[in-house]
Fold this sequence. Notes:
Order of helices and strands: EHEEEEHEEEHHH
CATH architecture of the largest domain: Roll
CATH superfamily of the largest domain: 2,3-Dihydroxybiphenyl 1,2-Dioxygenase, domain 1
InterPro entries: 3_dmu_93_MTrfase, Glyas_Bleomycin-R_OHBP_Dase, PhnB-like
Strand order of the largest sheet: 1-4-3-2
Number of strands: 8
Number of domains: 2
Structural class: alpha/beta
Strand content: 25-35%
Pfam families: 3-dmu-9_3-mt
Domain PhnB-like: 3-117
Protein name: PhnB-like domain-containing protein
Helix content: 25-40%
Organism: Sphingomonas oleivorans
Amino acid sequence: MSKIAPCLWFDGEAEEAANFYVSLLPDSRIDRVQKNVIDSPAGKTGTVLVVDFTLAGQRFMALNGGMRFEYTHAISFEVDCADQAEVDRLWDALSDGGSVEQCGWLKDRYGISWQIVPTVLGEMLSDPDPARAQRAMQAMLQMIKLDIAGLKSAYDGVSAA
């Protein structure tokens, strides 16, 4: 088990958010739900205080901190996707109720930033042929949700019809 775990701060939605996240990725589960043992700024006795969960093998903690703080892009979660079907599924689920941005970035309904990135993009951007890598980068910069076929066409120097 990892020694370090990101802690996500919520205003009463920690359990809801954790359940949503673990429903999206394999090797994910709720590990523990800790209730408030006294009334506190985080909630009344018996309400959820902390949810420890594992997301794609990475340990996380969701905390109902008692007030909302806004997340920024300074911290985001990148999801490495094997294919377009996985990109599409995660993009649709995580952006539902949130907002989409350029280059595969989105904010989910809880305001957390995600990068939904196909594995092949990293391979393209590290190609020893700088022209191919540059074409892939240029294509990515024009996209909202990343499209593997469009990236591949640009990478290969095939113009869009």
